[in-house]
Structures are given as C-alpha cells and as structure tokens.
Amino acid sequence: MAGLRLRWFPLVLTGALVLALAFLTVPIAAIFFEAGPRQLIDSLGNEQALDALRLSLLTSSIALALILLIGTPAAYLLATRRFRGRNLVITLIELPLVVPPAVVGIGLLAALGPGGLLGGALGDLGIELVFQTAGVVVALTFVASPFYLRQAQSAFEAIDPSWLGASRTLGASEARTFLRVAIPAAMGGLLSGTALAWGRALGEFGATIVFAGSFQGITQTAPLAILELFSSDFDAALALAAVLVAVSAALLATVKLFAPRTDPRAGETITVA
Amino acid sequence: MLSATIEAQLRELRLSLDLEVAAGSCLALVGPSGAGKSSVLRAVAGLLRPRKGRIECDGETWLDRARGVELPPERRRCGYVFQDYALFGHMSVWRNVAYGLGLARGERRAAALELLERFGIAALADAAPATLSGGERQRVALARALASRPRALLLDEPLAALDARTRTTATRELAHLLSDAGVPAILVTHDFAEAITLADTVAVIEAGRIVQRGAPDQLAARPASAFVAEVTGSVVLAGSAVAAVGGGSEIRLDGGGLLASTDPAPAPGEPPPAAGHPEGSPVAVSVHPWEIALEAADSPVHGSQRNRLPGTVSSVATIGSRVRVGVDVGQPLVAEVTHSSRDALGLRPGAGVVAVWKASATRVVPR
After folding, report:
1. Taking the model in full, what pTM does it have?
2. Residue B45: its chain A contacts at CB < 8 A?
3. Which of A131, B12, B55, B357 could bridge across to B63 with cysteines, CB 3.0–4.6 Å?
4. How many CA atoms does the CB half-sphere of B272 hold within 13 Å?
5. Phi and psi of B249, rounded to 5°?
6. ipTM given for this complex
C-alpha cells in the first residue's frame, strides 16, 4: 500500500504542474506563432500601433518616476517606524490591488473629474486630466504604485537595523543613512518592485479607458490600441500584443535577475511572486 | 569621562541604572541575555530614547530629558561595534572604514588603508564583507569604529562571534586597543572571563538594574548575591544559615548536607527568617570551582578541609589543562581538577566521590 501511494502521488503533482504550465504558456506562445516574424515587422509600420507603443512607454515612464520619487521614502517610513494606525495605512495602500480597474477609473473621475471632489480646485489651477495624457499617467500611477510600495517596504524591512544604527553612530544623518545605506542595501528589492510596477502600468486597461478614454496619440496606450485594432486589423493587434509580451517578459527577467542579488541576509525575506 | 543615568521602558523590561566611566578605562556590563545590556549601549549612542535620563561625555550634555536636550547619534559620535559587526554588505572593506571619515574624496582611501594597515588587514581593502572570516570582520568593525575618532567606545559582545582560537588573539588585541584609545569604553558581555581581561570595572546587570559593581577580582571574591556569584562562574548552592559557635556560620543545604563558612550568617531580621526556615535565614553558598577538590568516596578525613559533600559524578569535560567535573551532591556542583587527579580517581559519570573544600573559600550571600 505504502509503495503504491508513493508512486501515484508524485504523478498527481507532476500532472498538476504540467497542466498549469500548459494553460499559462500556450496562449502567450500562440501570439508569436500566429504573428510570424514577417507580419510582425510589417504591422509595426502601422501608425496607430506605433503611436500606442510610444504613448505607453512615455506615460508608464512618467508614472514610474512619480512612484519611485514618492514611494521610496514612504515605504522607508513604513518599514522603519512603528506608529499607531500603521497597519491601517498599509491596508489602505494595498487596497488598489484588489479594486477592479474599472472601479478605479470611476473613482478617479469622481475625485479628479471636472465635477469631482477636487476637480474644481484642479480646474482653477488650469489642470485638466480627463481625456488627457496626464490622466493616463494618473491612472497608471494609481494602479501600479501598490506593487512598488509593498516590495520596497519589505526590502527596507529586511535590512539589518544595526546597519542603520552603525551609519548614524559613524556621523551620518538620517537622510544620509537613507541615501547611502538603506537604498543601496535594498536595491535588489527596489529594482524588482520597479519592474513589477512597470509591468502592471504597461498592462493597465480598465482605469485608463474609463478615466482618460482611448484617443490615438493622446490617451490610447498599447492595451487600448490592441482592443481597437482587434476588430479592424487583427494582424496589427497580434504584432502589438507580441511586442507587449516581449517587454513584459524582459521586465519579469529583471525581477528574477535582481531579486537574489541583494545581500544574502537582506535577500531572505524579499519574496518575489 | 562618560556618565549616564538612564531610565527606559523596553517592552517587558524596565531599564534603570546609572554608570560612570573615566577616559581610558573600560566598564564591562555583564549579565544574561535580555538583562538590558545592549539597550544601555544603544541609549548612550543615541539609538534609543530613554524616558528619563542624563548622559554627559567630556562635559558635553548628550541627553537631558528634563531640559529637553537630546543630541542625535551622528553628533555624539560613539565608536560602536555591533554584536554581528553590522558591516555594510554593499560596500567594500575600505569603503566601510572610510564611511565615517569626513575627508575629501581623494584622501579617503589612503586614510582608510592606513587604519586597515594598523589592524593588519590592508590586503583585504577591496574585499566584500561577506567573504571575510569572523576575525577579519571584527577587525574591520573595530577599524571602522575608530576611524571617526570616537568620543567613547561601545562594544557589544565584540568577541562572541569568534571561534575559540581567534578569540584568544582578538582578546589580547582588544585589550591593547582599549588602553591606547584613551576614551571611555563600555563593553557588553555575558562572559565574566572576558570582562576580567578587558575591563577595569565590572557591573553585573540583572533585569535592567546594576546589582553589583567593582573590580573584577573583588566581585569574584565577594559576590553580593547568588546571582552575581553565578555570573562570576562560581558554584552556587542553596541552603539556610545559622551563626556558628566561635564565629562564622553553619549552612544546612536544601538538598541535605552541612557546610561551614568563615563568613557570618546574615544578621537575623536582615532578611527576616521566613516562617518556613526556623533553623536560619535563607542563603546561597558560593565557592569557586577551582577551590573544590575531589576525593575517593572511601578516603579518610584529613587536613583543614572542613566541607565534605559525598556525591555522584555526572559529567567530565577536559578543557585545556583543567578538567571540569560535574558532581551531583543533592544540588549540582562543578569542580575543576587536574588531569592527574582525574586519572588517579578514575573519574567518569556514575563514579562516587567526595567534594571537599575549605570553610574560608565558602562565601555566604543572601538569597
């Protein structure tokens, strides 16, 4: 009996993995089979596809810059201080991870739209977001930032607190300690968080189409263009999809490459999905 | 001169103590883990905010909660050697050492190399901390702590992470370094032997308080409590004492057995004899392991050794030129004997022996 059990259970495990792997890889591989290299190059001449790619790169880069600039110190505070309400703050920051993107779009409209909560104030300042490229940046920043914040927080938490103490006793202020010790020591986790957030921003669809619309060259990012091309020029849609897959794969590779490179002690608790 | 009065609440532990260390001398804080030793160092360095307290160094006030003075760690500049050395893993050895140097870019490497040279590890300047041995890491940590000309040295178990062979050399080097540095130093350790070698004064910490302080030999000779006696490595036996006719005291041990000491029994009422101890006040008896000799179970009584407890050998461990023998005499006891007496008595677990020592080597402390 024991011998039999030992033989069938590994088979179940292997079978489950093979099934999961096939299910997850076949559709992605199919994109490249369907869009042959020839078609791929041809359709990249498609102006709409090119516009969308350019816009995606531009808006996601600006969103990432904003996320890094504000997210890094915010995550450091969460990682190094204990204060009342800290858990609540962390939960609120993670909330966008589970809210459906279309709901995010509605929320952004309600908050920042012309008739929204802050819309009037923004309008007085001459800032318009709805149906504008800036609106795309806002949507991408919103959905992508939790990915970076979470990763950055755990990377900072993994730093041996005595490193920060040592830096202070050696004459460095807290700001200098943050720049010279904390950021370099957490670099692996910060980079993988950046890659995850960038991947999420590049794939963003729901919030963008609700909040910013889908206007070629202004708010139509690559995923939105794929939807539109899908009905008119399937080959171009496939080609654009292939490019997005390649970029996303490169980002994932970055995650895998940098995550284990941190200090062995700091690396232990950094978990990359 | 460094002086500190610290009161802090750390989770379960209430830290409340004051200490004073002269320039060029070293105070060792000895005690079990969790007694608050490292927290004292953190408070002095400015990494922990005591609820109340005053810390002064060379006439400069670092902390005075009453007056609202609190210097940040970077302005106190203590040379702090952390327990696991806390070398920055993303920097090479020389950059670690140069971190605290406030020099121009071009001079930093040369200055760091000079320090590393002094510690005999200049060859490791470009190595990553993760590739170093424990002893090498310790030297880098010391070099880094000294690089910024600290006003005080704080050493948290600086030798604990080293293997036994490296530790002997490292201890000697550290003793030299402490006498050269010329600044007040505080050493945290749980090893009394280490404290004897490195410190001028030892303070024994128990549950956030200093229970006794003094020169190391003074503490070993006259422990104020059973706890201090145990910290100094003495054998501690529980019993109750009464005054003996003609001076000294007699102690009835809790597990059975009668001992004599030249120490007086604690005066009645101080502490008051409990109702359960009609024969005397509860005490602990302490004796150094090297004062205890072992004899064969059937050997005749002779000499001036008044204390004789029969027991069974529970363990035999040879450490260098000495043999540590655990003996169960109703309470556990450790005797340190020579190789020749181990062989002559055929000491092995289970063997019957008599533990023998002088009344004058028997300390009686309140329990």
Report:
1. 0.79
2. 165, 168-169
3. B55
4. 2
5. -145, 160
6. 0.78
